[in-house]
Amino acid sequence: MLVTRNMSSGGAEPKKRRISSRYSGRDLLLEDDQINLIVDSYAKISDKYYALEQMFLQLFVRDDPEIALVFGLNDIPDEELRRRTPFRTHVCKFLRFITTVVDLLPKKDREEELIQIIRMVGRQHCNVKTLSFNAARWLSFKNAMLNTFAKNEKDKTYQPWSILIGFIIYEIKDAYLAHIRTSRSNSLPHVLEVYKLEFRKATAESVSLANQMAVATSVTVAHPMAVASVSVPHVQPGRCAALKNF
What we know:
Keywords: Heme, Iron, Metal-binding, Oxygen transport, Transport. Residues 56-164 form the Globin domain. GO terms for molecular function: heme binding; oxygen binding; oxygen carrier activity. It comes from Acrobeloides nanus. The protein has a three-stranded antiparallel sheet with strand order 1-4-5. Strands 2-3 form a two-stranded antiparallel ribbon. It starts with a strand and ends in a 6-residue tail after the last helix. The protein has a domain at 16-185: Globin-like, CATH 1.10.490.10. 61% of the residues lie in helices and 7% in strands. The chain has 246 residues and is mostly helical. The chain has helices at 32-43, 48-63, 65-70, 78-83, 85-104, 111-124, 135-149, 158-185, 187-214, 237-240, and strands at residues 2-3, 7-8, 11-12, 16-20, 27-31.
């Protein structure tokens, strides 16, 4: 939603955009000029893969080696780590994520999509069972992002990036914690549903086998199911497209 211009004795105040998360209650509030600074400064990063590669090297090797341990990438020299597929996949996935966020940020009718993409990352991190995402870990990740996209606090891009990154971290963390709470509260019903599903599957297989024995002709069934695809910006396919599960 757009915040209208407010008139004061000093003239018109800058127009601001308010992007509100109905999940966390958090607002992202940026001036139009600040959004343009983020978009322009990101576009000027000539080798985005390299920039994020260096960010994750800093995280995995120096700032928080416990992250590398979870993925079996601990105690590996930088040059070797850069060649490992799990590490490269990490870089490529984050490259796709942050590129999509920056691409959606100035688009006024896609705020909900932006929020959903950010929160999806938080839910996905619930799959990392052996790593605790404590306050220090969120902070180290925030600092790593700031150092990558706005190295100098005196630079005019620093405040806009700081506001955006703070919002991203907050939404990721909120989605992560919400998903954990939901998973715990639904754990017993989930077990029962899995049991019922397996029972129905076994029954269906038995019926299917009986039908196959009784029917002499085969029937082809078309499945009217369309898989939705999300268009994301171009992200240097030379180093990412060849990776599986990207």
